[in-house]
Amino acid sequence: MHPLTHTLAACVVGGLLSMGAAALLTFGLPRRWLTRMISFSTGVLLATAFLDLLPEAAEAGLETHTLFALLLAGLLGFFFLEKAALWRHSHDAPAHSHDLARTVPIILLGDTVHNFTDGLVLAAAFLVDPHLGWATALAIAAHEIPQEAGDFILLLAAGWRRSRALLWNGLSSLAAVLGGLIGHFWLSDAGRWLPHVLVIAAASFIYLAVSDLMPWLRQQRGDLAWHGGFMAAGIALLSAGMAFLH
Q: How far apart are CA 238 and CA 232, in angstroms?
């Protein structure tokens, strides 16, 4: 079978498996648990950025000063993008009010960028060896489950219906197919830009966690142990997936 066929099949099957598992983990969740599970999402997002994406960008050869400059630019860029998205919103709202619904575009954008880079990685692996490619695909699927679960939780907490959350996460997962195509046909240039894309994805996750989720959690009364525990669980689950990946 041609490496491109392997790559596209792995992108589609891996995306469906990780998204389906995440949906099973979250769709049966009682509504009262969503607030606590936002802590889980925060842990997953921060762990993905600091323990996975940024180290991978550095290992791919991105110079340290360039990495941090790009990270800073990404954080500022997401700030201005969010300000532009909120242009029509009322400025009379309390200074400390946080509407989770406004984080949805950043959630989907960050997930799309991450899926795109997964497609690039799969294309590179299958060009080397089909067995390596499928091993990588299985590892990525296991690695993606906690992140997809975190995305579902945030979308549900923002008021989205389950069917709508499933549809948009499915569309986001198609970015892996695009990444796989680009990685296969344009691998040299795609490989050169891969660490830059990883840093932008990390910036989106950090911005979302620090500017929106953590301030929102800070306003919730009580449940400190629950929030801390679920945040630690998100970090631990993501770290376990990374250990399997490597």
A: 10
31 pLDDT more than 70: no
Tens digits of residue pLDDT in 105-142: 777 887 888 788 888 878 877 876 788 788 778 767 76
Tokens at residue 88, please? 């029509």
Q: What are φ and ψ of residue 133, in 5° steps?
A: -65, -45
Tell me how far apart the alpha carbons of residues 234 and 44 are, in angstroms, rounded to a whole number: 5
Q: Of 50, 39, 4, nearest to 149 (Cα)? A: 39
Greatest C-alpha distance within the chain: 60
**The pLDDT of residue 184:** 83
10 Å CB burial of residue 91 (0-12, 13-18, 19+) is exposed
Residues 200 and 62: their CA atoms lie apart, in Å, by 13
Domain limits, the chain: 3-85+99-245
Judge whether residue 193 has pLDDT over 90.
Answer: no
HSE at residue 221, side-chain half, CA atoms within 13 A, is: 0
Give the global pTM: 0.67
Bin 20: left if φ > 0, else alpha if -120 < ψ < 50, else beta.
Answer: alpha
Q: Which amino acid is at 154?
A: L
Q: For the segment 216-229, what is each residue's pLDDT rounded down to a tens digit?
A: 788 777 678 888 89
